[in-house]
Design a protein that fits this description.
This protein is of the alpha/beta class and 432 residues long. The chain has helices at 8-17, 79-87, 93-109, 120-131, 142-159, 164-182, 190-195, 221-235, 280-286, 357-363, 378-383, 406-424; strands at residues 23-25, 44-51, 55-62, 66-71, 75-78, 264-266, 303-309, 313-323, 337-342, 365-371, 387-392. The strands form three sheets. Strands 7-8-6-9-10-11 form a six-stranded mixed β-sheet, with helices on both faces.
Length: 432
């Protein structure tokens, strides 16, 4: 089997299932241990598999090999990016992005191609598929991949002057179309469709009196009868205003300037939450964390933040509503909830439409924000992949925005996950 016939993604998944991780090498012929190299210097990936039918197999593929995983932002990933994602499957998105930048700096210094990082949802989807899950919305089927390669092969033949295969396929397709057309049953033409199925007799336009005895189609007398009914009603005298009852309003309400529904983000009302209404806006918009302030004022119960979501509407920012409580929610508001910030305390969801965490996080993304390097609560672990876990550096009094530069990475990770979740759940520029 040639290298072009090998599906790199399937081969990678088979290696993972066999607990035989592929090895980065400096060449396609890794005959010695010295050929094994770190990813910063490697150009190929060596797969060592074994089966009862074929025995031990050693397959080396270039790291630039295009795979069937198609990212929304980066397109089809190469083998190097897939391998790097698998190597960093246990890292947070912020650490993953930082490590990717360091790797690319080293690879470019050796004249090698850069790897591309994935957003949270895509990274999670790829890792789960490589681990054994059956479905992935980002992976093209093998049939689609074969068809693409076949089309490229035929195009190359045509460019070189050998177009016999393409012409034969075209002729075969024409024969099939003729067979299909021969089985069609004609049900009418343009005139019959316009005439409709109503009994409408049309008399011939002639001055001869005898011609009136032979109708050629149908007239519109029944239409005139209906018209006369309505015309007779209009001629009747109108009742006096005192006897006229006010007619109910039947016009639909005018849309409010075509404004689209604003997505909603629910915050945790817990006093232990790191993000409250008093500090969440500066965090999500400016990328700087400050501790929440304690206030007894009831005026601060809703906030608005603007954010451009390129994959949803790149032309204008979306306006998000941030609230801590759904007490004033209308029923349709729940369709606009796109994210729920939580501290891991289930009492937060008591008044929600979906009070069970598993059901809630199937409708909206869960977000847990904790201190970096602290243990993750057991409840968050139990809620699974529906909750994004991010960490921020511990706050010290007197810190400047420059000193808290890692907050920006965390904020971008949160927004990327929210955008991917909105897109996956059918949220468009006009709403969900």
């Amino acid at each position: 089997m040639s290298a072009g016939d090998i599906d790199a993604l399937t081969l990678f998944r088979t290696s993972v299932a066999a607990t035989s991780s592929p090895l980065p090498t400096r060449s396609a012929d890794a005959s010695s241990a010295s050929d094994i190299a770190p990813l910063t210097e490697a150009s190929h990936l060596l797969f060592n598999t074994q089966s009862a039918a074929d025995g031990a197999q050693h397959t080396a593929l270039p790291l630039t090999t295009t795979t069937r995983f198609v990212s929304q932002t980066n397109g089809a990933l190469d083998l190097a990016s897939v391998f790097w994602c698998w190597q960093n499957k246990d890292k947070s998105t912020g650490d993953y992005i930082a490590a990717t930048q360091e790797l690319n700096t080293a690879r470019t210094s050796h004249g090698l191609s850069e790897v591309r990082n994935l957003v949270f949802a895509e990274k999670l989807d790829l890792i789960n598929w490589l681990s054994g899950e059956n479905d992935s919305e980002f992976i093209k089927s093998l049939d689609d991949n074969r068809q693409t390669r076949a089309q490229a092969h035929d195009a190359a033949k045509m460019a070189s002057g050998d177009g016999d295969v393409v012409m034969q396929d075209a002729r075969a397709e024409d024969d099939k179309l003729r067979d299909i057309y021969a089985l069609e049953r004609k049900t009418g033409d343009r005139n019959t469709l316009l005439r409709g199925s109503k009994p409408i007799v049309r008399w011939p336009c002639t001055c001869s009196a005898t011609s009136q005895t032979n109708p050629v189609s149908q007239d519109f007398s029944h239409v005139r009868k209906h018209a006369e009914t309505f015309l007779g009603r209009s001629k009747a005298s109108a009742p006096t205003p005192a006897l006229v009852a006010p007619a109910p309003a039947i016009r639909p309400a005018k849309p409010s300037g075509g404004r689209r529904p604003e997505p909603i983000i629910l915050l945790s009302p817990s006093a232990s939450s790191l993000l409250r209404l008093s500090n969440v806006k500066s965090f999500l918009m400016d990328g700087v964390y400050t501790p929440p302030t304690s206030t007894t004022s009831t005026a601060l119960n809703i906030l608005h933040v603007n954010r451009v979501m390129p994959s949803i509407d790149p032309t204008r920012p979306l306006r998000f509503i941030l609230v801590e409580s759904p007490d004033n929610f209308k029923p349709d508001y729940w369709n606009r909830v796109v994210a729920v910030f939580t501290t891991g305390q289930a009492w937060q969801f008591k008044g929600y439409k979906w009070s069970q965490p598993a059901e809630l996080f199937s409708h909206a993304l869960g977000v847990y924000v904790g201190w970096r390097n602290e243990l993750l609560p057991d409840t968050i672990k139990g809620w699974g992949r529906g909750v994004l876990n991010v960490g921020i550096d511990a706050y010290r009094e007197g810190q400047t925005a420059q000193q808290r530069w890692r907050d920006r990475e965390t904020v971008e990770e949160i927004w990327s996950a929210i955008e991917a979740s909105m897109r996956a759940r059918g949220f468009t520029r006009e709403g969900r």
